[in-house]
Amino acid sequence: MLDTRFMLDFVKKIADLGKSYREVPRYHEIEPFKHFFTTDGTLKRDELDEFDGKFTRREILTRYLLLSVVLDQGPDIQGVREFLRRVTTGLYRKEVRIFHKPASFFQELGISIDEILDKHQSVKELRSEKWAQENESRANKYNLFFTQSQRGIISTNQVLDYSIHRWGVPLCVPLLLEKDLEAKQEESTQPLVDYLESYPSAEIMSQSLKDHERYGLGSAIGDKACHLFAKTYVSILNLVKSHSDDPAWSEVSYEVPFDSNVGRVLFRTGFLLQLASIDQLKDEEVIQAGKGSGGTNYIRVTNIRSIRTNVILPGDDLFSDYVDILT
To answer: Which one, 151, 152, 264, 270, has the greatest CB density within 10 A?
Structure first.
């Protein structure tokens, strides 16, 4: 029997905790963008369409957000954000303006790689001890460089692979959009914003970030990061321009960012077992018997994304409660 009261109370508790511990990146501390914000970090929303070079502030911030959510897949969120802030500031001080001119990242690749290596070392010195304590690990294992493999996301020591894949791919999206406009002899002060908001909803946009044949980031971005971009673009910074009054671009228009850590919490509390049976979770390889460390069961909760619940269906007495919980 579905325990809707448990599920509803559980979701509300998570929401309350999330609001209590909410941590918004300190965008105003990123030197090239500090004039986009007030001194207390409030975005100057009425100035988003002012020019910063040849593009609007809205466009430049959107480009930054796309790169930031790709990098945010790293093992230390606070460290990743500080790392990106330091690299961005360092590159701009050397006139490598990667969000105003994405091609400069590649044209000055030596400078880009050197900045990434240098700032990674400085963040490692700042964060490694605290990270090791929190994760019951060793400080010398601290590494924000990661890449994609058949085993998923793994750390790497090859900075060129990491830089081109994790930095280069998201920077290439606005670059390619600019090139395509030039080929058609057209111009835009916000090509990335125009592309993103060409989709009918924030959810479809978030899926296309990964899957689009020409502009999709593919393995450079995960499902959680796509939805994290939607959350930041729509709800945190509210950069939406052409769909500002459209419910399909509102705070409930996209899937909540969901990763394996969140999934394991939901699994261990019994929340997910309200919606799917153990047998169904095994069939869908959410539970992978014997594939964990030392022959234990491995829980790959993100596989639940593709599962349809076999507990309740439209027309059931509990379906309206189910809709309330999801909403």
So the answer is: 264
